[in-house]
Amino acid sequence: MGVNIRGRHFLKLLDYTPEEIRYLLDLSKQFKNMKRNGVPHRYLEGKNIVLLFEKTSTRTRCSFEVAGMDLGLGVTYLDPGSSQMGKKESIPDTARVLGRMYDGIEYRGFDQQIVEELAKYAGVPVWNGLTDQFHPTQMLADLLTMEEKFGHLKGLNFTFMGDARNNMGNSLMVACAKMGINFTACAPKELFPAPWLVEEAKKIAAENGSTVRLTEDVAEGAKNADVIYTDIWVSMGEPDEVWDSRIRLLRKYQVNADVMGQAKPEALFMHCLPSFHDTKTTIGAQIAEKFGIPEMEVTNEVFESRQSVVFDEAENRMHTIKAVIYATLC
Ligand code: CP
Ligand code: NVA
Fold first, then answer.
1. Active-site residue (options: 133, 176, 231, 319)
2. Nearest residue CA, atom 2 of ligand 2?
3. Backbone angles phi, psi at 192, to 5 degrees
4. Is it the case that residue 141 has pLDDT exceeding 90?
């Protein structure tokens, strides 16, 4: 029987089978082709979705808005200050109100429990647009980008360098395990992913013919990699005070030309963005001034290099989010 995920939530890739992820990637490619060729696809006219953001966003918000508009949907955006959620109205109440008006709800915010609770009460599909623990829509964009560049996913060697116990490290470990990609988290042990998730990912990887490993050693992490991926060192919602210790822990895990030189010659550099690769941002300039480092998780040289596919990933956010909305609402 074909894959059918109509009515399902999209909260984390742990909830999805490799076949369902494959279906979403194939659907994304179809939507990308339609968009590129100017073929209209207003398949969901008459439906409405709401986007709840408790943290800031460029890519995720714009992807949901453009994908929604391309599909003919009405789209409402609620920013952190403009709803009653949390302060005056509980998550279950908010979910039941929005579920009466909208056909789908996107949530970006803090604990994974919040999006899980929204999903429990909403009565309509809920999509996770990033929590502290997981960022599943980013995973589809990253998988699609890798498949476009390499022509396949199975058997690739993928290395994540940096804060491996956060939403991106966690999600990439699961995404790779699901799709048969060998995953390495290269990080100081203080920032390794949670043991329960590593065990779960190892089991999933074994079922799909791949491996999960953790290393503190940069040379070992970079060796033979097809992809080197990194993320910012301090994530949204973390206090400013952690910059000091995070920089000390992660400085040697910066993705620079030396690290890329230890990977395969045609290796890709990937990053979910936003990135601190220069001092052209307020925070980038402040950190440069305070700690004397003008580039953080990746050097500008690598970010701007031929191997960098960061803007392909960003574009693919929109096509893949469109596939998720369509497949769960159609
Ligand atoms: N990668 C990503 O989620 O970007 P935004 O924070 O801009 O949405
Ligand atoms: N780890 C980052 C990802 C941003 C897309 C954060 O949560 O801020």
1. 231
2. 235
3. -70, 150
4. yes
Q: How far is the CA of 274 from the centre of ligand 2 (A)?
A: 8
- DSSP annotation of 160 reads E
Q: Are 128 and 141 in contact (CB under 8 A)?
A: no
DSSP label at residue 45: T
What does the block give as tokens for 289? 């001034």
Would you say the CB of residue 167 lies under 6 angstroms from ligand 2?
yes
108 is catalytic: yes
Shortest-distance atom of ligand 1 to CA 63: 8
Distance, CA of 125 to CA of 222 (rounded, Å): 39
Cα torsion 128, 37, 179, 314 to 10°: value is -50
pLDDT digits (tens, 9 = 90+) for 46-55: 999 999 999 9
Q: pLDDT tens for residues 238-294?
A: 999 999 999 999 999 999 999 999 999 999 999 999 999 999 999 999 999 999 999
More confident residue, 82 or 201: 201
Contact 157, 184 (CB under 8 A): yes
Q: pTM for the complete prediction?
A: 0.98
78-87, 102-111, 233-242, 261-270: which range is least confident on average?
78-87
Distances (CA, A) of 240 to 70, 98, 281, 291, 297: 38, 34, 16, 13, 17
